[in-house]
Amino acid sequence: TLSENWRMQTDLTYYHYAGRLHANVYEPGVYWVYRDILTIGLSGIYFTSGDEHRLHPAADLAFHWPLAGGFSISGGFGIAPYAVPYGYPPQERYRTGYYRYGEAGLLWSHGAWRVELDRVTIDPGSRDYLNRLVAAPWFATLSRSF
Questions:
Q1: Any idea what DSSP says for residue 55?
Q2: DSSP structural state of residue 18
Q3: 48 pLDDT more than 70
Q4: Residue 75 CA from chain centroid, whole number
Q5: Using CA atoms, how far apart are residues 35 and 119, in angstroms rounded to an integer?
Q6: At 111, phi and psi to the nearest 5?
Q7: Residue 118 CA to its chain's centroid (Å)
Q8: Burial class (CB in 10 A: 0-12, 13-18, 19+), 82
Q9: Strands, DSSP E only, in 18-112?
C-alpha cells in the first residue's frame, strides 16, 4: 500500500506456446492501482526463443467501473512487443515489433469468485505478422482467489 488510494504490486508471468511456435516468454511487471478502478502497468517481455535476449518494454492502462449487483464494466488499452518465427526452419529467425491492443468487457464478482467476458482487438497493421498467434476476439475467464 502506497497511500489510502494507491497500491503497487509486482508479478512475474510465464507463457509457454507449444506447437510450431516453440516460444517461452517471461514477463516481469509492476502495476499501480488506484482504488481498484484504474490500473497502470509497466512490464518487460523476454522472449527466450527470440534473436535478441533482452527485455522489451510493454505498457497498459485498464479500468473497472463498478455497477450494481457485483457487476463491473472494464476496458483498457496497451502496447506490447511480439516475436514471430519465420524462415526455414521457422524457429531459427524471428520478426519482432510492437502491436497495440484494446479491450472492453463485463465482469461479475462475488466473494472469492470472479467471472469476466472480454472483447479484445489489436491494430490492423500488426495482424499480418500475428495472424496465427492472434487469440480469439472474445474470451471468458473464471477465477477464484485463495
A1: P
A2: -
A3: yes
A4: 12
A5: 24
A6: 60, -125
A7: 12
A8: buried
A9: 23-34, 38-47, 56-66, 71-86, 93-110
SS3 124: helix
Average of per-residue pLDDT values in the chain: 85
Neighbours of 83 (CB within 10 A): 21
Residue 133's CB is within 10 A of a number of other CB atoms, namely 17
Q: Which amino acid is at 75?
A: G
Peptide bond into 89 cis (omega under 30): yes
CA distance 121 to 104: 9
Q: Are 101 and 77 in contact (CB under 8 A)?
A: yes
Q: Which of 55, 66, 68, 62 is nearest to 101 (CA)?
A: 62
The pLDDT value recorded for residue 119 is: 94
Q: Which residue has the higher pLDDT, 17 or 102?
A: 102
Name the amino acid, one letter, at 65.
W
SS3 label, residue 126: helix
Residue tagged 481498484 (cell numbers):
36
- Longest CA span, the chain: 55
Query: How far is it, in rounded angstroms, from Cα 18 to Cα 50?
Result: 15
